[in-house]
Amino acid sequence: MTESFYVVAGTLRVCDGRRWFDASAGDCFHVPPGGLHSFGNQSGEPVDFLMLFIPGAAREGYFEGISHLAGMSDEERIAFFVHHDSYFTDMAKGPAAQSWQAGSPR
């Protein structure tokens, strides 16, 4: 599936698989099938963004189930993320960590 992100308000920290950069209101970016990517809010302020998945049905279970994470055991949480092909790393230590910390421009 492909993913596209459109930032509606605020600033979203985005990794394109090589480096982190800030995306602001009005910015749009596209992730091709299999593209490594990540995002996070480093600003301390609210961020609103729109995510588009094509085809969309493949991610519905993830977003429907994410509200139940707090009640899951560690094993259930890991199984949930593996099932939905979502892997998290420490952004300050993972790929492109220096550009996460630096707030580097695009």
Features:
alpha+beta; three-stranded antiparallel beta sheet; 3 helices; 6 strands; 21% helix; 30% strand
Helix content: 10-25%
Biggest sheet character: 3 strands, antiparallel
* Uncertain residue ranges: none
Taking Cα atoms only, what radius of gyration do you get, to the nearest Å?
A: 14 Å
Strand percentage lies at: 25-35%
Strand arrangement, major sheet = 4-1-6
Tertiary shape:
globular
**Total number of strands:** 6
Q: What's the helix-strand series?
A: EEEEEEHHH
Can you put this structure into words, describing what you see?
The chain has 106 residues and is an alpha+beta fold. It is 21% helix and 30% strand. The chain contains 3 helices and 6 strands; from the N terminus they run ββββββααα. The strands form 2 sheets. A 3-stranded antiparallel β-sheet has the order 4-1-6, with no helix packed on it. Strands 3-2-5 form a 3-stranded antiparallel β-sheet. 7% of the residues are buried.
